[in-house]
């Protein structure tokens, strides 16, 4: 039998619960606030459990601190230039929450909403959010479901959405991974199976080009991340084991598989210093994000892929994080 959800706190007079999943090999917990993945525990080479994602011990930190730790991002992950895009011959104007652009769903994106529990068992939980038309400027009433599911040594996150109007949709999870269970990613080696990336300007908005990776940003061969900053959107060459990392300290290796066309690989070089779980200080270079998604500003760059969710159609994508020991 699954354990009952536990009250984690209250925000805006609404209760937030934590749901615990455990399949006997790995375990995790999920919050109804922001659909946050709060913990993810896997065994190291010595059989010791390691929580491999950053986060907080209290709800107020998730509400007030930056980083969107472990949250589901929507309706649109990443940046949209000037918060504007064309749809069906008209311009749609979104909120501008990072001047002069829109990022990660706006001022109150999916990461700041209270989600409902649709179903859960010991190995999975399905959460639901109803996003009203014109929320942060997005057209269409959208029904969104996110399922976290454990299977053997893996966690799969499945995203589903439908809208009663044509709109755009680009959902991802914003977990910061640290396979050492520490506040530094020193000793981590990472790879991304991609020969191309999306160049951006100083404001993180794509130039519209697609370029070949170079010696500095290429990650097809695993690279030690010591003092090397990354915040790059790669166009993936394959779905299975398309990216990942490992920790020399714990002997934990993680691989990422997804049906999304791109991944934003970020080494948290701009993460503000704060106190995380168990009183651990975290900040710059404390974790690594593997945000599977459409590239930034895709609504204005159709060459990056079609991110439009049409009325009557279903958005359905997934990403799996698998863990091994070496």
Q: Overall pLDDT, averaged?
A: 97
Describe the biggest sheet? Answer: 9 strands, antiparallel
- How many domain regions? 1
Order of helices and strands: EEEEEHEEEEEEEEEEEEEEEEEEEEEEEE
Helix content: under 10%
Rg over CA atoms, rounded to whole Å, is: 19 Å
Overall shape? globular
Sheet/helix structural class: mainly beta
The span between the termini is 33 Å
* Named CATH topology: Beta-galactosidase, Chain A, domain 5
Count of helix runs = 1
CATH class: Mainly Beta
Strands ordered across the widest β-sheet: 11-12-13-14-29-23-22-17-20
Can you tell me the residue ranges where pLDDT is under 50 for at least 5 consecutive residues? none
Query: What CATH architecture would you give?
Result: Distorted Sandwich
Estimate the strand proportion. Answer: 35-45%
> Which quaternary structure do these chains form?
single chain
Number of strands: 29
Relevant terms:
Beta-galactosidase, Chain A, domain 5, 2% helix, 326 residues, globular, single chain, mainly beta, 1 helix, 5-stranded antiparallel sheet, 9-stranded antiparallel sheet
Give a structural overview:
Helices cover 2% and strands 42% of the residues. The protein contains 1 helix and 29 strands. The strands form 8 sheets. A 9-stranded antiparallel sheet has the order 11-12-13-14-29-23-22-17-20, with no helix packed on it. Strands 1-2-3-4-5 form a 5-stranded antiparallel sheet. The longest helix is centred in the N-terminal third of the chain and has 6 residues, at 59-64.
């Amino acid at each position: 039998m699954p354990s009952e959800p536990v009250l984690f706190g209250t925000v805006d007079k609404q209760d937030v619960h934590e749901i615990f999943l455990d399949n006997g090999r790995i375990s995790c917990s999920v919050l109804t606030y922001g659909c946050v993945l709060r913990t993810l525990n896997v065994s190291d080479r010595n059989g010791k459990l390691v929580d491999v994602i950053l986060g907080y011990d209290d709800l107020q930190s998730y509400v007030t601190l930056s980083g969107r730790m472990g949250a589901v991002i929507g309706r649109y992950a990443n940046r949209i230039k000037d918060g504007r895009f064309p749809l069906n011959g008209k311009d749609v104007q979104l909120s501008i929450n990072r001047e002069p652009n829109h990022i990660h769903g706006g001022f109150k994106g999916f990461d700041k909403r209270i989600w409902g529990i649709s179903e859960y068992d010991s190995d999975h939980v399905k959460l639901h959010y109803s996003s009203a038309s014109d929320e942060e400027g997005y057209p269409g009433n959208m029904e969104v479901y996110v399922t976290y599911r454990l299977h053997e040594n893996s966690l799969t996150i499945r995203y589903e959405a439908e809208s009663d109007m044509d709109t755009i949709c680009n959902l991802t999870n914003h977990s910061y991974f640290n396979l050492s269970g520490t506040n530094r990613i020193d000793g981590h080696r990472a790879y991304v199976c991609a020969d191309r990336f999306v160049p951006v300007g100083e404001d993180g908005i794509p130039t519209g080009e697609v370029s070949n990776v170079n010696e500095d940003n290429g990650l097809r061969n695993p690279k030690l991340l010591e003092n090397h900053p990354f915040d790059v959107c790669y166009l993936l060459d394959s779905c299975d084991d398309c990216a990942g990392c490992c920790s020399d300290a714990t002997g934990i290796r993680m691989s990422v598989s997804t049906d999304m066309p791109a991944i934003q690989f970020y080494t948290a070089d701009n993460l503000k210093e704060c106190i995380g779980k168990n009183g651990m200080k975290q900040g710059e270079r404390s974790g690594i994000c593997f945000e599977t998604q459409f590239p930034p500003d895709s609504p204005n760059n159709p060459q990056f892929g079609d991110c439009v969710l049409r009325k009557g159609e279903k958005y359905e994508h997934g990403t799996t994080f698998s863990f091994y020991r070496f």
